[in-house]
Amino acid sequence: MEKLEKPASTIPKRTSNKSQPEFDYSTRKQKFRENCFRRVREDRTRLLWKLRISDCQSSDQKEIINSAFQDIVSDELKKIEDSSRNLPGNPTVNEDCDDILWEYEEGLKGVYEGDSEDILLEMQQIFYKDLLSDNGSDVQIETWEDEEDDYLAALVSQNMCLNSEQEQNQIWCPICKKGELMENNRHIYCNMCEMQLNKGEEVNLNILQERLAEAHAEHLERGCRLKPKFSVQSVYNLKALYITCEACNTFEVVV
């Protein structure tokens, strides 16, 4: 009895796309690493500020650093994955395109799993090496270049620890930065300057403390490193405390 020949498969096989010019894995891999290292340098000041106000133990600070670096790696990987769906010459909806994306994303997965630990270690080396080269053996963490740095750090620290035993009862005046904010039945005021706000159900010393810390944190989140200024102004017959910064065009009501 003669053997029947198997019919040729009509299912197309996945073909490797690694040889295609647009899938230069070594170039993509190098770009991925460079972007991660660039982000370390760009985010260094923000990370140092976070470490400074966290008042954590050394082991906790290392965890914060590692977590921040892992977030950078994951974010940069996602950017590459997203960009792979918009490669030049590929149709929007096409089986071949699906094969290409499948092949490429499998390659990216291998890059991430195989090199992520090495990349994270290099990121740490860059982080600490840059600190030492900028500041010498004694690392000095300075975000602003005057005595207001400690004042601002204390405010943000208050915001982070409002529900803990570390909360500070003393609230410094945001305008003169010398006096202490006080309150009576009618007003919130500074004992060293003319700063004064009307007190009410929606405005008291505790709320002002929270809003000052939040205002500084929000300003920092915008990426601005210059000192914001505070003032009491009456706009549309409404007396309020404002935060302003000419560098980033901030002009907002605090309370």
In short:
With 255 residues, this protein is mainly alpha-helical. It has helices at residues 25-42, 44-54, 58-83, 95-135, 148-160, 205-221, and strands at residues 181-183, 187-190, 196-198, 229-235, 238-245, 250-253. It folds into two domains: 21-135; 148-253, no CATH class.
Structure write-up:
The chain folds into 2 domains: 21-135; 148-253, no CATH class. Helices cover 49% and strands 11% of the residues. The protein has helices at 25-42, 44-54, 58-83, 95-135, 148-160, 205-221, and strands at residues 181-183, 187-190, 196-198, 229-235, 238-245, 250-253. The strands form 2 sheets. The protein has a 3-stranded antiparallel beta sheet, with no helix packed on it. A hairpin with a 4-residue loop joins strand 5 (238-245) and strand 6 (250-253). It is elongated, with a radius of gyration of 28 Å. Mean pLDDT is 69; it is low at 6-22, 90-94, 136-148 and 160-168.
Largest sheet: 3 strands, antiparallel
Order of helices and strands: HHHHHEEEHEEE
- Low-confidence parts, pLDDT < 50 over ≥5 residues? 6-22, 90-94, 136-148, 160-168
Q: Which structural category do the helix and sheet elements fall into?
A: mainly alpha
Radius of gyration: 28 Å
The global form is elongated
With strands numbered from the N-terminus, the spatial order across the biggest sheet is 1-2-3
Mean pLDDT over the full residue set: 69
Please estimate the helix content: 40-55%
Portion in strands: 5-15%
- The total of helices stands at 6
